[in-house]
Amino acid sequence: MPARKIPPDPLAYAPFALRAPAAARYVGFSESKFYEAVNAGTLPAPRRQGRVAVWLRDELEEAIRNLPTSEEDERDEWAERISL
Prior knowledge:
Largest sheet: 3 strands, antiparallel
Distance between the termini: 76 Å
Oligomer: single chain
Number of helices: 4
Shape: elongated
């Protein structure tokens, strides 16, 4: 008996949770930079179900929104220079 073909989902929506390659693409990072940011605590840790790790889109979005702007980076760099 042939496998039943599942029709495409008529709703267009983004997935709620993303595996690492998709999560990295979602935030615009390479996979290696993505894992660096996760290990540094800049991006959230994954949720786990057994051996499957996923990142929630809303948590990734919040982490990216909370990154400093380049203007903030320049101010921090300048503050470090004048405090020397």
